């Protein structure tokens, strides 16, 4: 795996799509911990981006997930698939073009998606590419 995450591969990086930016803004408004976006374009066929955040408790994780679903719905953003919402330990919201992973900190540390997808460039929150 590449440990140089965050370095864009020349010639294939474009700005982060508005729905991905909006989803991350919504999560940040709900005090998401350690948010990041992985750009999976060219690395995975199932989705283009992973949004990964942590909450401080099961209730925080559930609350962020529920709020995100409600906030994106008016603009037509409805998850194709939802997993883990009742437990709140690891909630997965699949919006097809992007997948949101909301973790309890212990599970995020255990599964280490950032490490597993180490070849994917990281679009850090506040990074110019994320802003548009």
Describe the model.
It is a single chain. It is built from 4 helices and 6 strands. It has 132 residues and is an alpha+beta fold. A hairpin with a 3-residue loop joins strand 4 (90-94) and strand 5 (98-103). The longest helix has 15 residues, at 58-72.
- Give the quaternary arrangement of the chains: single chain
Contiguous runs where pLDDT drops below 50 for at least 5 residues: 1-13
Strand order of the largest sheet: 3-4-5-2-1-6
The tally of structural domains comes to 1
Annotation field: number of helices? 4
Number of distinct beta strands: 6
Mean pLDDT: 86
Specify the overall morphology: globular
Structural class: alpha+beta
CATH superfamily label:
Beta Polymerase, domain 2
Question: If classified by CATH, what would the architecture be?
Answer: 2-Layer Sandwich
The H/E string reads HEEHEEEHHE
CA gyration radius, whole angstroms: 14 Å
N- and C-termini, Cα separation: 28 Å
State the main characteristics.
single chain, 132 residues, alpha+beta, Beta Polymerase, domain 2, 4 helices, 29% helix, 23% strand, globular, disordered N terminus
């Amino acid at each position: 795996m590449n440990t140089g995450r965050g370095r864009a591969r020349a010639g294939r990086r474009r700005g982060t799509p508005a729905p991905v930016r909006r989803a991350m803004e919504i999560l940040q408004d709900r005090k998401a911990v350690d948010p990041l976006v992985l750009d999976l374009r060219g690395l995975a066929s199932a989705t283009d981006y992973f949004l990964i955040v942590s909450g401080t408790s099961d209730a925080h994780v559930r609350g962020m997930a529920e709020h995100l679903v409600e906030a994106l719905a008016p603009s037509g953003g409805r998850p194709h698939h939802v997993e883990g919402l009742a437990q709140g330990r690891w909630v997965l919201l699949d919006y097809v073009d992007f997948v949101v992973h909301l973790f309890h900190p212990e599970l995020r540390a255990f599964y280490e998606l950032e490490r597993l997808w180490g070849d994917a460039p990281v679009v850090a929150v506040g990074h110019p590419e994320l802003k548009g």
